[in-house]
Amino acid sequence: MQATKHGEQGHLQAIREALGEGRLKRVGKLLHRTHPAKVAGLLEALPPNERRAVWSMVDTERAGRVLTFLHEEICAALAQELDPDDLAASVQYLELDDLVDLIQVLPGEIGARLLAATGGRRRQQLETLLSYPEDSAGGLMNADPIEVRPDVRVGTVMRYLRLLDELPPQTDMLMVVGRDGCYQGGLRLSTLVTADTDERVSDLMQVEVAGIPVDMPAAEVAQLFDDLDLLSAPVVDADLHLVGRITVDDVVDRIREDADRSVMQMAGLNQDADTFGPILAGSRSRAVWLGINLVTALLAAAVISRFEATLQQLVALAVLMPIVASMGGIAGSQTLTLVIRGLALGQIQKGNMRLLFTREMGISVINGLLWAIVIGLLVFAWFDSAMLGGIIGAAILVNLLCAAAAGLTIPLLLHRLGIDPALAGGVILTTVTDVMGFFAFLGLATLWLS
Amino acid sequence: MQATKHGEQGHLQAIREALGEGRLKRVGKLLHRTHPAKVAGLLEALPPNERRAVWSMVDTERAGRVLTFLHEEICAALAQELDPDDLAASVQYLELDDLVDLIQVLPGEIGARLLAATGGRRRQQLETLLSYPEDSAGGLMNADPIEVRPDVRVGTVMRYLRLLDELPPQTDMLMVVGRDGCYQGGLRLSTLVTADTDERVSDLMQVEVAGIPVDMPAAEVAQLFDDLDLLSAPVVDADLHLVGRITVDDVVDRIREDADRSVMQMAGLNQDADTFGPILAGSRSRAVWLGINLVTALLAAAVISRFEATLQQLVALAVLMPIVASMGGIAGSQTLTLVIRGLALGQIQKGNMRLLFTREMGISVINGLLWAIVIGLLVFAWFDSAMLGGIIGAAILVNLLCAAAAGLTIPLLLHRLGIDPALAGGVILTTVTDVMGFFAFLGLATLWLS
Prior knowledge:
Two copies of one chain form a homodimer.
Chain A: H1 2-20, H2 24-32, H3 36-44, H4 48-55, H5 60-68, H6 72-81, H7 84-90, H8 96-105, H9 108-117, H10 120-130, H11 137-140, E1 147-148, H12 154-163, E2 173-177, E3 183-188, H13 189-194, H14 201-204, E4 212-213, H15 218-228, E5 232-236, E6 242-247, H16 248-266, H17 279-305, H18 308-313, H19 316-344, H20 353-383, H21 386-416, H22 421-449
Helix pairs in contact in A: 1-2, 3-5, 5-7, 7-9, 8-9, 8-10, 15-16, 16-22, 17-22, 19-21, 19-22, 20-21, 21-22
Membrane topology (chains A, B): Multi-pass membrane protein
Transmembrane segments (chains A, B): 287-307, 313-340, 361-383, 389-414, 426-449
Domain CBS (chains A, B): 205-261
């Protein structure tokens, strides 16, 4: 690992040095020796102006591949740097599904121009693929399956394949299609090469791999690939006609992007944001999240302000109140995370909802009591006041119970409303635990002191 | 999607109903019709005692496959429910890499017994695979590559393959190995089937897919598969001898697990925890995280307590101080998330560290000034006090700058220390922003008021 990482860093360093010294030829040479995925990585790690300089040195015929490895924002920016004709030339050997993704990222008129520059059958296929939603099986698929008939023999199939120059990338399976155009099964290449030449395709084909409906959500396609260890799978329309093929590399990309997106979203960041992009753009997108947080913080402040008289009477309350809010926030986010994951994995269903509630509330009772006692005793020792210890203990217990209830209901509610719980769940939860924490603690103190 | 989800839920419901009615035969029948991955999903969604009942109805010959789809904790528990001989029987057709993973999850003596029950060449291969660290290429690989010599012709290869009953699952490529045992290249099945029978393997083989060193970290293997769109890849030892083969399905599992782990860890949860496990075990693991958080909350409380006199003088400070801490926490976690991701993707390297610092500090100056003014004005309007507005504005600016600095340095420091920044980064950051937020706000107020 060390070697590779150093090698990579050295590579980046070498390119930057060559760039700094104006040795553009050397930059071009270094780039030419680098895999498109790595070139994309290098570009993303450069500040915008150096990035533009390096980008201009990438060979036109490799630029298209590089674009497919970039995050959206950077991809769109760099594609627009290219001369339209060069852009069209650079993408002409891309796989169709990659080209579709690229067009969807680009501003409308540039995408349209790319489409127009594509000719014949490829153009037609491209238009069909573009018509499917990005987040569906149709949006993931390629239009390149190799079809064979069920009633032919292995020898015939082999002769047919030898007529082809090469098979599409990631071909592990031929699609068996009847004369009516309906998908019947898959013939694995690994089965084909071990079969006798006079065996019939219909006897060899795998029927377990059912056709994936073209409108199946991408997340479900990913789950299917994972569960069945698929390398590729057929996609069918409503009439079970074969319309395309999904390959595992696109599914892997999707899984990585989804994981990445949820981590970024939890911090209110845009997944496709450029780590080294312009400062002003970066500030703007983050300011929104800070603004949302301000509203919830003001809500908590408003709750506290209701108890100014109590705080005036006993200023130690101000010292301790953040503890109540923070313990609730942590406990709630544990429940929230577990529920969000359970929903994503399909573990949580109608039949076991009650069990989940019992378990989470049970855990929060135990942890609530435990930490109520610990914190109560600590505060008693610190402030030498049994009353203050009692108040904070009670408030901790109340807030941990509320936190568990909120951690359970918020994601289930958001899920039912069709909102991604990973996006909004955290903010709503913290609002609840802050408000409840301050309210319970200061409210109990007010009752006790009056 | 709806159809499948309902179907699945209905399935679970049907199994639970049959179980409730004591119709065990029907349970067995329903299970037999379900893919092992789905059976695993069903088991994870059941409470422990129903789970045990359903598990006892799974056919022995399918139980091994089901185990490979379960999360660790549940997998270990259910494997131990089986009679040792049944367990040994259930795993005898598992792929070796799956069996390795299983043995690593099981308690020592059960794993040892499984190993002892494996015979001959399989046992030998198993022992070799078990000797590699789980998180390395060796831990991901299988010992089943099909080898061919570089100097033979396609026709010979085809005849050799036809002698084999079937190829190992997920075979898309034969490994070309010289007489010295060294890996030379890969021969894709898709190339083989389109080639003429008298072409030579050495002319057809792909040499771009280099052998993966057996000690390459799993994360790097995943990156490699992703970048090069690999379906399988050869693994070689230090002498470049072919020792095994990694297939993409295991890489996908690894990517999913890693993503899952980082989300769970951020909430202080154990990735392999059972969503429906016993309450006490669940409470214990979460209590640790709450305890760590308590220490940081007490630290913040200690800071506040230094300013009790000031709070006594102006109780409005208690109302407003959580706002300062919370805005800092959000801003800091944005920087933190971006840096953690940049490190994971390899975007952040020595050469661009300064650029990253400039950008993040720039963003925090802009957002710091923006929100200092907004919140200052709000507080001025709310409390009719220009002084209070000025104090909170200044504190917000200071805390957002500290937050950015902490969000930058904490992950870089943890990364250098070899600690996963995703695990500990969040807690440390919040401690910094809480402490700094309270200190800056109350400290400034003390200066102003005195």
